[in-house]
Fold:
Amino acid sequence: METEWVLGIAAGTIAAVSGMKMANSRTKSKKQERKEQVIMDEFITPFLPEVMGFYHLEVLGKDPLSAVDRGKLVDKIYRQSLGDEYGGLDRHGALGHLQELAEPAKNNRQELLQFLFWYLDFSNGILKDMLEQSNPLLREARLLEKQFAVWFICHEELKVDAPDSVLELIHHSSYFAGALKEIEAGVFREMMADDELRGERRGNFSRIIFQAFEKEAEGEAELKAVEQFREHYNKRYTHRNKGQIRF
Structure:
């Protein structure tokens, strides 16, 4: 029942904006308006509720992979992403990344997070044109894009010796939401697109996230996650490179 309620709320919110006129129509050609409306109707409205539901279920402490058919979701998003209208509005190459990740994302949690990040990166470009900047759906979708990047990068950093700490991080993402506002979306995009760059930055990036998380952590499991991260960080990084923030 909780699962259906969460997905229902997300679907209702998105349905309310489907078919809306462009917020910035004066700066858009009629042809581009039509293209963006098609993408909104075919690519965003059908799938964004489940993508947002993935986040809400995690926050509730639920495992979305048991509630959301990720194979079906990934396959539908992938097939729709091949539409002729889409490529011309792909501002940051998100669709190419999404299409490359489609097959592994069906069976791998880490690749799924990366896949969903690129879905949101493309979708947010369209929502930015469709909605007023103050619209709560746009704000939530932008934050969720950053959250997916955090979950993926921290999972990649900690999957060997502290994977449980990432689960706590996911369940309490509100603890570090404020820190994400201070980091431009382009930083996340660069890290997600470049394996080498991400390898250089992810240790200090994870440290920033866990420092923000620690300020709000209270429960035993949360504090244990912080300690697991500290142990990982102290073991992996020397005093010489610990202080280097590369953003």
Observations:
- The first helix runs from residue 2 to 15.
- Confidence is low (pLDDT under 50) at residues 1-9, 21-25, 243-247.
- Residues 71 and 87 are 23 Å apart (CA to CA).
- DSSP finds 13 helices and no strands in the chain.
